[in-house]
Amino acid sequence: MMQRYRKFKRAWGMWYAFDTATGNSVSLKTREKAEAVQKVNAMNETERQPSISLGLAKVYLNATDPKLATRTWQEVMENIVAKKTDETRRRWEVAVKDRNFDCIRNLPVAETRPEHFDRSLADGKVSTNVYLRRIHNHALGMEWLLKSVIPRLQWPKPVFKSKRAITAEEHTAIVQREQNAERRDFYEVLWHTGASQTDAACLRAEDVDWNTRTICYTRKKLKSRGMGVKPALIRFGAEVEAILRRRPAAGSLFPYLCTVRPGDRSTEFHQRCVGLGIQGVSLHSYRYAWAERALKCGYPERFAQQALGHNSKAVHHAYSKHAEVTVPSLDDWEEDWQKNPQRGGQPKLMSVDFRPPLPAAAQSN
To answer: What whole-number distance in Å separates Cα of residue 25 and Cα of residue 14?
Structure first.
């Protein structure tokens, strides 16, 4: 019987395998003839008896990791969830319940082929695409996969739904119709700060520094990343001050809304929009609105990112395409800045110390 693969040696001493069926050559990554012979024989043996080769592969895998050949994708998902905390864990717990994952839950990781993932991704659901890629990368990082199931460049590109910012007129209509004082102030805070709905609902009076007139908080979704995460920091004006004065002086600024699930807050907002005939917006639209307003008035991107939370996607979304802005002449901009450095997109920076205050005894020393 003719063998499909045969070995040959390049001029620089490296052994290669030649595929007689396709005419392609692949490096055996060895300069030793005995090792090259063994690899080519294994390739030919696999071609003749794939089922036996799979069984042998499992035997070899069990010698390095007893669960490597039997570990399922459900176990990979459970391992990821167990390592998450707080809001990130809640997001993952919801994500892994996706019905599109049912076809791979009990599938051994080592036996996964691209067509298995294709079935999960068949409906084009964005969240499935995003989380399946993260699950796949986690398995690769833990060395539970010997190679990628789908190469990085071959993953289907997720198609996101179009997003838009809420307009000032729409926001005014919603606020004027809202009868609940806490929820009305909540929408106002979203408009003026661009915070995500969860971060805004969980704001506390202690996050407000009246001396520097700033609101400083760490984003809920980023807390699990540790001490390296930059907190969101925004300076407020007279309108926000009036709102904050109406809220509790201690503890949570929104005592009821902080206990409500994000989905329920979104449902309540959607009901207000339906009643007013407003379509295509959600609570997250407030972040896009803030970013677009910042761009239109020449607010520097690095300041916008700091205000919305480090590296906010809403900033990139607005600063890249949606907001309409007339770019001024650089000469005029530079001349105006030289006359008044606090204008022209260069507001005076304030130094904020995030360290806890020293005890009175230490301060006196």
So the answer is: 12
> Residue ranges of the alpha helices (H) in 5-85?
33-48, 50-64, 73-83
Largest CA distance in the chain: 92
* 25: β partners: 18
Distance in angstroms (rounded) separating the CA atoms of residues 101 and 307: 37
Rounded to an integer, the average pLDDT of 98-103 is: 94
- Residue pLDDT, tens place only, 212-236: 888 888 887 766 666 556 777 888 8
pTM of the entire predicted model:
0.61
Q: What is the mean pLDDT of the chain?
A: 81
Q: How many Cβ atoms are within 10 Å of 109's Cβ, its own excluded? A: 24
- Work out the burial of residue 133: count CB atoms within 10 Å of its CB; fewer than 13 is exposed, 13-18 middle, 19 or more buried: middle
The mean per-residue pLDDT over the stretch 248-277 comes to 92
pLDDT at 247 over 90: yes
CA distance 105 to 74: 5
Using CA atoms, how far apart are residues 163 and 283, in angstroms rounded to an integer? 11
* Start-to-end C-alpha separation, the chain: 91
CA atoms within 13 A on the CB side of 43: 20
Separation CA 365–CA 73 (nearest Å): 59
Distance CA 302, CA 315 (A): 9
Torsion of CA 65, 69, 74, 75, to 10 degrees: -10
Helix (H, G, I), strand (E, B) or coil at 215: strand
Residue 303: CA count within 13 A, CB half-sphere: 17
**Token output for 360:** 């009175």
Q: Which of 119, 137, 123, 129 is nearest to 156 (CA)?
A: 129
- Cα–Cα distance for residue pair 182/130, rounded to 1 Å: 35
